[in-house]
Amino acid sequence: MRYIRPGILDREMKKGSAELLILSLVEDQPRHGYDLSKLIEARSNGVLKFRVASLYPLLYRLEKRGWIAGRWIEKAGQRRRRYYRLTPAGAGVLASQRDTWRAFAEAINRIAGVDHA
Amino acid sequence: MPEWPRRISEELRQHLDDEYDALRAGGLGHDEAMRRLAGDVDELASMRARPIDAVTTDIRFALRTLRKNPGFTAIVMVTLALGVGATTAIFTLVDAVMLRPYPYADMDRIVMVAETTRAGQMLSIAWANFQDWREQNQVFEHFGIYRGTVINLTGGDQPERLIASLVSSDVFKAVGLQAMIGRTFTADEDRPGAPRVTVVSERFWRSHLGGDASAIGRTIVLDGEPHTVVGVMPAGMRFPSRTTDVWLPVGLFVSTFPADRGAHPGLFGVAKLKPGIGAARAAADMDAIARRLEQQYPISNTDHTVSLEPYYEQIVQNIRPALLALSGAVAFVLLIGCANLANLMLARADTRQREMAIREALGASRRRIAQQLLTESVLMALGGGALGALLAWWGVKAFVATRPTTVPRIDQVAVDFRVLTFALAVSILVGLAFGLAPALRAASVDLLTSLKDAARGTAGAGRRTRSALVIVEVALALVLLVGAGLTIRSFAALTAIDLGFDPSYVVTMRVSLPSARYPQLARWSTFHRELLRRAAAIPSVEAVGMNSSTPLEGGGAESEVRYEGEPAPSSLKEEATTCLFQAASPDYFRAMGISVVRGRPFTERDNADALPVAVVEEALVQKFFPNSDPIGKRIAFEFTGHGPGGRPIWREVIGVVRHVRHYGLVREPDNLQVYAPLEQLPVWFVNRRPTMTLFVRTPLEPEQLAASIRQVVSGIDRDVPVFSVQTMAQYVAQSTEQSRLNMTLLGLFGALALVLAGLGIYGVLSYFVSRRTQEIGIRMALGATRTDVLRMIVGYGMKLTIAGIVIGLAASWAITRSLSALLVGVSPHDPGTFAAIGLLLAAIAFLASYLPGRRATRVDPMITLRSE
Questions:
Q1: How high is the pLDDT of residue B367?
Q2: pLDDT of residue B864
Q3: How far is residue B383's CA from residue B77's CA, in Å, rounded to a whole number?
Q4: What is the per-residue pLDDT across B710-762, written as a single tens digit (0 to 9) for each?
Q5: Can you tell me the distance from the alpha carbon of A93 to that of A23, in angstroms, rounded to the nearest whole number?
Q6: Nearest-angstrom CA–CA distance, B378 and B438
Q7: Which residues are B176's β-sheet partners?
Q8: How far apart are CA B389 and CA B392, in angstroms?
Q9: For chain A, which end, N or C, has fewer CB atoms within 10 Å of the first or last residue's CB respectively?
Q10: How far apart are CA B454 and CA A44, in angstroms?
Q11: In whole angstroms, what is the distance from residue A106 CA to residue B187 CA?
Q12: For A17-103, which CATH class?
């Protein structure tokens, strides 16, 4: 991804991919922000790293759009955290974003002959 | 109030805590963990990017913000468009009239020269005086003399009237312009016996001579005499008038100038001061010469001196007071607009405090936030400015289309690059001006207080700023409205002036007989008699008259007037009674609707063979014959021979008419008006016959009538042109033009100011109400009635308004004095206008306060309390 010409496409892709990542990660279980950022870093072997400055506003935006729902949860001995889960609307968006992404990646592969990792 | 900023900052804090814990758990010490975290914190502050990025980010962000609030953005842009548009339009005028350089070399050294009495009455220059002045002065580099006239061009399909100017060769040198092709006049051509040559304007050259160089040497027939074209002046040559078609050498006319220094044959001077000679020094030098001539020629020159006036002054002096007033007015409109916008921006900044706080929590510095706010206001200012430029372009175009005659260089008034640059500069300044207050405040917002819930009540400082802005706005609007009110009163006073004649259904046109073709007075008289007879026979013509001078056009021939038996003047310094004398045909009074209050008008029998008679105006009767019947008394306004007054030609008074406005509506010197029959032409006119104006009372359209008259005239002499077709109503409109212009423009800007001030009050009170909903709810829950609430809101609005009105009235009192030059028949401190405007503004302010007040009374106490 880093070698795509910088520009609008790049920016949209990053934005889209960030949304896709978050939606995917909260699909199975509710997660809080810190958890999400660690998971993304860990599962991508450190290639993808969210900027703190953009993660939380992004979560806010996704919630405002109704794709995820946040809820403060307090556990004994810990301070309260905001957990996000996927909403039915978010599930729909996730499905369609996955399709788009898949189609896009396949297209790139066909042209560039790169194996999709 | 959104809760997301609090939420995000809490999440961020936790994120950093978690990271810290994780780092510590991974074995790092406190210091090392904090150092790593500092990286994240830096990233949070990543908005501190490279400056250029910051600017583009700001702009993109600002555009997005503005798009999200279309209502707000629209209000701001419209306010700006009006302010910038008005300012730009007036700047266009000021620039074209006053600022843009004139095409003449060293404009600041060109002075207009006239003869004047020490009492200040301006005269044209006696030919002999001019020659002495020219020879004796030490201050002029060039000193030319000129006289405007009209001349008939024949030899084409139809005779045409041209605007001509007889000039000495130094006129071209004084204004510093050379011929575009060919040459200007030589010193030889200033002397009697000069060859019949002419220099033509660029416009005439294009329209009549094919616009090519072969025009030089060609011959044109002017007043029946062939003249050789020797030069073409560039289009920039507008001296003595923009409309001048041809220049003729003064030498051709010298023999017609009376040698008598008491005669003032319509000549005026134009000179270029020597470098380094100031106007005061020049005036002193010329005055010394005038004093020497006074000694030498006491009869003609006593109390006569020389007046010098910078040419630039002469061009702009009439329009300057209006332009200054209008510039002031648009500056006020712009300031009021800025105050409004600053208020809007402040209110908005309050509601955005949380947004700002979170951005600060995310690492944006206060400077960056202030910069962001400024970017938004400058962007809006640019948008509004562009709209304003469009408005100005349209307004200026509409204005020029009305062809105002009182604006110099009106043909050059247009929105151009200079003007657009001005609009751009004003827009940016305005953007900074109204954006600065909110930006400064945003830069000093306390992060903690904003993030806490306490920010509901607006800070006291903010409210004070807003109140002060409203007071200023009201005061400015009041000053502007008083100015507008005064010009409206002035216009009303002007239009109420009794003209002395009935302008409706009167069409005028001029007929100028070339003296070469009509050398004898008898032929001249016959032509006019015949013209009157034939014109009266045109169907639908009710009456036809002629006069040597046209009412409202600025007077005409003036002279001393005396009655028989008046004691002879005891000294030269004794003030003589001045009259305006006119040669009129029998039906002139009937055609113009001028009432004959006593005696009779002229008849056909008052001809060259009959006894000399005169018709006089009522004021003359009051002055000369207050207690007796004026009919049959004798007066004289023509004197021949030398000595004070000379030998009088007595005329019997046969009729008395009403006073007629001759010098326009603004100024009317107390010259007594006298009329002589056309066929008993006053002695001045015998040698230099006047161009007669025809006055026709008819329901016909001017063009239709002009066509018939042209036919009549060419039936008598096909080489005589008919020109200056104009209705009397148009003359009236022209004399009120400047006043109407002032009234319209100031009225327009006043109305704008009123609307803006009303909006300002409305906006601030609406904001006040929305911020105080809770307080109002509590008050109502505690028993306050709706009236109490209404009184609180409206009272607040009116308190601000009254403060503004008081300040505005005081300021108006000081400022309107500078409007005196624009006002006729109304004092700049007219109490009626002041009171009316104060009340008007108070009424608008009341309305603007009442609307938000009424909304406040609809507050439901239960709902507001529950939401707490």
A1: 75
A2: 66
A3: 7
A4: 999 989 988 888 888 899 999 998 888 888 888 998 999 999 999 888 888 88
A5: 9
A6: 13
A7: none
A8: 5
A9: C
A10: 43
A11: 95
A12: mainly alpha
* Secondary structure of B151-200 in HEC code, one letter for each residue: EEEECCCCCEEEEEEEECHHHHHHHCCCCCEECCCCHHHHCCCCCCEEEE
Residues with Cβ within 8 Å of B458's Cβ and at least 6 positions away in sequence, in order, are B350, B771
DSSP string, B356-383: HHHHHHTT--HHHHHHHHHHHHHHHHHH
Q: Do A79 and B14 touch (CB under 8 A)?
A: yes
Q: Using H for helix, E for strand and C for coil, what is the string for A74-90? A: CCCCCCCEEEEEECHHH
Residue from the list B10, B22, B44 with its beta carbon closest to the beta carbon of A52: B44
Given CB atoms, is A21 within the 8 Å cutoff of chain B? no
Cα B186-B191-B193 angle, rounded to 5 deg: 110
Closest alpha carbon to B688 in B812, B513, B845, B571: B513
ipTM of predicted assembly, 2 dp: 0.80
B622, B663 contact by CB (below 8 A): no
Place of tokens 């040419």: B311
- Give the burial class of B867: count Cβ atoms within 10 A of its Cβ; 0-12 exposed, 13-18 middle, 19 or more buried: exposed
Region for residue B32 given its phi and psi (left: phi exceeds 0; alpha: psi -120 to 50; beta: otherwise): alpha
The neighbour count for residue B698, using CB atoms within 10 Å, is 21
Q: State the Cα torsion B102-B108-B112-B115 to the nearest 10°.
A: 170
Mean local confidence (pLDDT), B140-152:
90
Question: B212-262, pLDDT tens digit by residue?
Answer: 888 898 999 988 889 999 999 998 888 888 889 999 999 988 888 877 887
b (16+ CB within 10 A) / e for B68-93: eeeebbebbbebbbbbbbbbbbbbbb
Taking chain A, what is the end-to-end CA distance rounded to the nearest angstrom? 12
**Nearest-angstrom CA–CA distance, B637 and B621:** 15
Which residue is it, tokens 């008898």?
B522
Cα end-to-end distance, chain B, whole Å: 12
Q: Tokens in use for B516? A: 């070469």
Q: Could you give the C-alpha distances from B163 to B104, B149, B724, in angstroms and in order?
A: 21, 6, 11
Q: Are the beta carbons of A56 and B40 separated by less than 8 Å?
A: no
Residue matched to tokens 């996704």: A62
Q: Which residues of B touch A (CB under 8 A)?
A: 4, 7-8, 10-12, 14-19, 22, 40, 43-44, 46-47, 362-363
The whole-angstrom separation of Cα B231 and Cα B214 is: 11
To which residue do tokens 């400082």 refer? B461
- What's the rounded Cα separation, in Å, for the pair B19 and B513? 105
Residues linked to residue B545 through DSSP beta bridges, in sequence order: B695
B4, B15, B16 member nearest A60 (Cβ): B4
Q: What are B245's two structure tokens?
A: 């078609």
3-state SS, residue B667: coil
pLDDT at residue B27 is higher than 90: no
CB neighbour list of residue B470: distance below 8 Å, 6 or more residues apart = B339, B343, B760, B761, B764, B800, B801, B804
Q: What is the Rg, in whole angstroms, of the alpha carbon atoms belonging to chain B?
A: 37
